[in-house]
Amino acid sequence: MISLAQEPLRLDANAVDYTLLALYFVFVLGIGFLARRSVSTSLDFFLSGRSLPAWVTGLAFIAANLGAIEIIGMSANGANYGMATMHYFWVGAVPAMLFLGLVMMPFYYGSKVRSVPEFMNRRFGKAAHLVNGISFALAQILIAGINLFLLATIVDALLGWPLWLSLVVAATIVLSYTALGGLSAAIYNEVLQFFVIVAALTPLTLAGLNRVGGWSGLVEEITASPQGAKQLSAWPGNDLTGFTNDILSVFGIVLGLGFVLAFGYWTTNFVEVQRAMASKSMSAAMRTPIIGAFPKLLIPFIVVIPGMIAGVAASEMVALKAGEDTNVTYNDAILLLMRDLLPNGLLGVALAGLLASFMAGMAANLSSFNTVFTYDLWQTYIVRDRPDSYYLSMGPWVTVGATVGAVGTAYIASGYTNLMDYLQQLFSFFNAPLFATFILGMYWKRMTPHAGWSGLVAGTAAAVGVFALGETGVIELSAQGTSFVGAGAAFVVDIVVSVVVSLFTRPKPESELVGLVHSLTPRESLRASHTGEDAGWYRRPGLLAAIVVVLVIVLNIIFA
């Protein structure tokens, strides 16, 4: 077993597999060229002209999240922690997605802002806008590096190329179609990629279950493993959080992951919000994350379960979990399962699915970075009052610059054995304090512009401080447990600093806060239309959200 574990990971693809991959890339680039024909203004390039139907933006919404981090990271978590990984979907995603659709999107879409930082500018002014714009841009480059690194690992597993060459080739692929057609190219490719991902991972899950003797066989194998039957229960998730106390672990998951990290990510992350803002109406914008919540409920079964299977069926992963010296990490879980179970042909489909997920994630990072950098940083602070054609022409060049930056940050990602550890730390730095500022500013009209930027800075500093304490061993928790605590600290510190600063500084006049603060905004402007193209019970955001709530409660009960 040890000698096998030391062999480099290689996928035995043949001509059939490479043909399928080539065919997929033809479709991807073709969509980019077609989307290019519809781009005539900067709004077309960065927000698809606000013209897309809800089903398209809904699938793109979830596909943008179904990137390399979701596939590799969650399967790694499945192999490492077992059923507790389900919390990232049913606690740490779906409730926040519903909140975004029902509560936040009316403010975003109704105000006609082009980005989340632009909303910050209107609510709090230039200082908060600049802080948020810079932090968001930095976050997207760092996260794009994760997607790019994992895309390069596929190239390496297929061809054995060195990391730097794999990174350059992978970056060129994503750059080609994102720079061509902007957000429309990214969104329509994301819809295609969603179906490719599902078609690729479903057979892998079924083959894996067949390998271990079905669900009952998987239960037996995991029960007999060193980690034991606790990996079959989602609650209390002690291994995931690092807390030995069950109550503290549950609080960490519900408050740290389910509230602060999840709401911070889904409601303020422009990567996701941008897809909803490309919708053709308020109703479609509200339905976008709610439509995305339906497949989000089921994705764990084709992502987490394969990771759990790899943890007991792939020899290298079994050795890793037993504490033996191997040259694989938990990030390799799904690749090992593909290598061991899929015949040629199906392997090509699975590889296309993985590449689709990596490109969807990175393209989402690049397209949102384009919008924020061009509108919120370049146009606002560097080169102002130029014709729209100037900012449109910048789009492809900004994409190139962001891709080069992602190549550099990919090397940071390469140092983590479980990329979810890294990702959750980034979310605690960037998303948790932003959510605190947003939610307080939206419901408390007294919050001032000075509080907007100072709360963000203080909250981020608190999360970084908790991370440093975890790295130096002062806080003894798992890496993801530390991020849960860091997110909570960022949220609390942001709120406290914002309240204190607001009490000593002057707020904006109420007339300038209409459409930005809940109590000052006319209710009719926050309601979705139910006529014309938005008519029909199946287009009512509230009803769709209620159905999702019932389903997520049922799933949590079944797998508790």
Automatic annotation (TrEMBL):
It is found in: Membrane. The keyword tRNA processing does not apply. PROSITE patterns: NA_SOLUT_SYMP_1 (PS00456), NA_SOLUT_SYMP_3 (PS50283). The chain crosses the membrane at residues 15-35, 55-76, 88-109, 130-155, 161-180, 192-209, 247-268, 289-314, 345-369, 390-413, 425-444, 451-470, 482-504, 542-559. InterPro entries: Na/Glc_symporter_sf, Na/solute_symporter, Na/solute_symporter_CS. Its main location: membrane. Keywords: Membrane, Transmembrane, Transmembrane helix. CDD domains: SLC5sbd_u2. It holds the Pfam family SSF. It is a multi-pass membrane protein. Belongs to the sodium:solute symporter (SSF) (TC 2.A.21) family. PANTHER family: SODIUM_GLUCOSE COTRANSPORTER 4 (PTHR11819:SF195), SOLUTE CARRIER FAMILY 5 (PTHR11819). This is Sodium:solute symporter family protein. It comes from Streptomonospora algeriensis.
